[in-house]
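ARCHIVE CARD
SHELF: 3
SLOT: left
DATA:
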Amino acid sequence: MMDWDKLRIFHTVAEAGSFTHAGERLNLSQSAISRQIGALEEGLGQLLFHRHARGLILTEQGELLHRTVRTVFQELTMVESRLSDNRERPSGPLKISTTVAFGSSWLTPRIKDFIELYPEIEISLLLTDEEVDLSMREADIAIRMAPPRQPDLIQRRLLTLLTHIYASPSYLEKNGVPKTVEDLEHHRLIIYGFDTPPPVASINWLLDVGTMPDKRRKAVLRVNNLYGVYRAARSGLGLAALPDYMIPEDIDITRVLPELSGPSIQTYFVYPEELRHSKRISIFRDFLLQKVAEIKP
């Protein structure tokens, strides 16, 4: 009989395309992942991956096992959800994934109301700017800044986000307030950066707005999440393009060039097809829609 833990690791490796990326998702070392896959291949007497310098490719036998394992895990997810929801009140775990900025600034302050309404639901928040694999139950729900690419995920548009340029009063007092887009050339800019894909493709529009295609501005600082960008702007380092939801009403920070806004961002409530009938999913979705409706225009 095949080991379920090895099958879970196999599926993650197949989805990630490398031992390294699979290890990051599972919080295991590359060598531990490699040993588990080797043991699975030895037990089956079949090679499951072709190894090469750029990553891993499933063999024909690996493709067959991957399709089967994916279906089994989806069925198990559906059964688990129905067993948990077949009680009088919704209960059980609910793992929600979203970006660091949206989760810490918008979602987390509102979770208290949901927990008080449904104390038997065990909420876990996974805040990461990387896209988690919902089919492997890395989360039950994702709130994403772009529509899902996987065909087996259900999506619902949740909220439209607007971004503007912000700076601390101390920075503006020292460096002056930009009056035109051209004035941005003379200011320090803080942006999202690093090698990981950004949560939104247009996140660094501040570098390009009002410039020629080959005249992109330079940044004084790159930070790998928007909350860090926000904190750097508050410290007086420079200007930053930030979603309006990140700016508390009682914080002394100034919107610069208020008539100028970046591309709007659509957020999506996303979950797997097999959780379509989950009460925990539906009540959390309805809760978020109510919170969105309460936002002042």
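SLOT: right
DATA:
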Amino acid sequence: MTMQKHLDFFLFLGSTYTYLAVNRAEQVAARAGVALRWRPFSVRSIMIEQNNRPFVGKPVKLSYMWRDLERRAQRHGIPFRSIPDYPNDSDELASRVATLAAMEGWCPRFARAAYALWFMENKDPGSIDHLAAVIESLGKNARDVISRADGQEVRDKYAAETEVARSLGIFGSPTFVYRDEVFWGDDRLEDAVDWCMSH
């Protein structure tokens, strides 16, 4: 019996292009029979270490990014209402909730809901009130989830996943990894799945 292959999906909830990936990666992987492992990490920390924040303070590049993202969203049938506020989630609380969700198996649902809040309603998913509403909409107890996301176990897991990403040479989100092969960007999703299937 052939073992199902796994593709690691490293994501950061404050990343703009990751909006596209959270809305299509599962379907693309599933069509190929590949299981997706959702691995939230702090790309912001890595970018700061590398002096590599691609859009902050760069208005021309930022403007291009939003238009490019809007085009790709249209291409893939993903809603795009208007340009939301950016950056967000300054304490990375939403990403730590995503870490807890990944530990418990509900990360895809949470990530999609958090991004919908950000992109469709222009509400920062890192805000306690907005975050609580997302968590409750998924049938979870918001106070309990947020408390645990602030706890040491989840903080340690988030830091550990960030260290794994760092060791793999990951510098952006979304990034897909099969073994030690790294594919950066939503536009490399299909390449990553193809590589996973053929190796």
